[in-house]
Write a structure and sequence with these properties.
With 386 residues, the protein is of the alpha/beta class. 35% of the residues lie in helices and 28% in strands. The strands form four sheets. Strands 1-2-4-3-5-16-6-15 form an eight-stranded mixed β-sheet, sandwiched between helices.
Length: 386
């Protein structure tokens, strides 16, 4: 018997209040001390065993029922973003320059609600590990938890994560087998000349001109070096150099990102960046240094786990097969490298203007809290059927 709206709706009032409390008190990655304390307290009140300090501020709630040794993991991320909020809502952030602009407050509330419901019904046979993860936003909190022995201490046959998705209609749940989120790479290229008077450019290598040439060449990599059957994005996001109108700077910095789904494509793009930079450096008589960082791998869903997730989703909401992956990234990829599982999107978009994630006017849609709770419960009850 799956959880019904009537069974979980009595939790919603308190969870909406809790979600808005988290929104008003956001914390950045690896600093989620208040958030972790509140989660631990509420899990303990529900009779759930709590383990803290995993990967920093991460924690795991463990709930057992029956006699089976089967176990699954359900993950929610806890951290906020370094953005100044502009929503104007009554529960807006009390911390200047920090706010829950990606909906992690909602993710925490949904998983907590599922934990509370499962603790009182226990209609499953096995163990549910409720994983509350720190530092998803660029700091690889998932990797920190895995390296801290997450799956050795709390073995799981499957692990799932749910992320709100404004581009989908509210209440729709989507996922897909294979790649669902892209690998994220960061590059920083420094071009060094000697610097000199702008009126006498013939006397010094022009780092700005070399940087301009390099930016143009970088933007040909995907269109000219990657097969059109593959998917990739390369974006230059910052160029910095120079301070005065009459001085050629001694150095210019170019920063950007690469997004891919296949390691061979990722390799080809990095190799191409280095080849092109070397050519521009030789032609312009500038010295070029490259720092290339692959900070998140692609998020790859296990096909069986994705199918199981869609079946569970169809039992509680509108479920659909996502036609294509997204070029955004997610450190849940590290958990999926260590344990089979799937990453899902929960639609929260309204019929009107849809505010995107990481926008200063974004706020989680409390109307979908109940659906998220029931999805988590359905995954536990189906995969650990008594």
């Amino acid at each position: 018997m799956l959880a019904t709206a009537a069974e979980t709706d009595d939790l919603l009032g308190a969870l909406i209040h809790f979600r808005r409390e988290l929104h008003a008190h956001p914390e950045l990655g690896f600093n989620e001390h208040r958030t972790s304390d509140r989660i631990a307290s509420l899990l303990g009140e529900a009779g759930i065993e709590v383990h803290r300090g995993i990967g920093g501020t991460g924690l795991v709630g463990v709930l057992k029922a029956g006699n089976s040794d089967r176990a699954i993991g359900l993950r929610a991320d806890m951290d906020a973003l370094p953005i100044q909020e502009q929503t104007g809502v009554p529960h807006a952030s009390c911390t200047p320059g920090v706010f829950h602009g990606c909906g992690h407050d909602g993710h925490v509330a949904m998983l907590l609600g599922a934990a509370q419901h499962l603790a009182r019904t226990r209609r499953f046979d096995g163990t549910v590990n409720f994983i509350f993860q720190p530092a998803e936003e660029g700091l690889a909190g998932a990797r920190a938890m895995v390296e801290d022995g997450l799956f050795e201490r709390f073995p799981c046959s499957r692990v799932f994560a749910l992320h709100n998705w404004p581009d989908l209609p509210a209440g729709t749940i989507a996922t897909r087998p294979g790649p669902i989120m892209a690998a994220a790479d960061r590059f920083e290229i420094t071009l060094k000349g000697r610097g000199g008077h702008a009126a006498m450019p013939h006397n010094t290598p022009d780092a700005i001109l070399a940087a301009s040439t390099l930016v143009g060449e970088l933007n040909t990599i995907v269109s000219r070096r990657i097969p059109p059957t593959e998917s990739a994005v390369l974006s230059v996001t910052r160029i910095a150099g120079g301070h005065n109108h009459n001085v050629l700077p001694s150095s210019v910095t170019i920063v950007g990102t690469v997004r891919t789904f296949d390691v061979s494509v990722q390799d080809r793009i990095e190799e191409s960046i280095r080849q092109i930079a070397a050519g521009v450096g030789q032609a312009s008589d500038t010295h070029i240094d490259i720092h290339y960082e692959r900070y998140y791998p692609a998020t790859i869903n296990d096909p069986s786990a994705a199918s199981e997730a869609l079946d569970a989703a169809a039992a509680v909401a509108v479920a659909e097969l996502a036609p294509e992956p997204a070029f955004t990234s997610e450190d849940f990829a590290f958990m999926l490298q260590a344990c089979k599982g799937a990453y899902l999107w929960l639609g929260q978009g309204s019929a009107g203007e849809r505010v995107p994630l990481h926008n200063p006017k974004y706020d989680f849609n409390d109307d979908v809290l109940g659906i998220g709770i029931r999805l988590h419960v359905a995954l536990a009850e189906r995969l650990l059927s008594a």
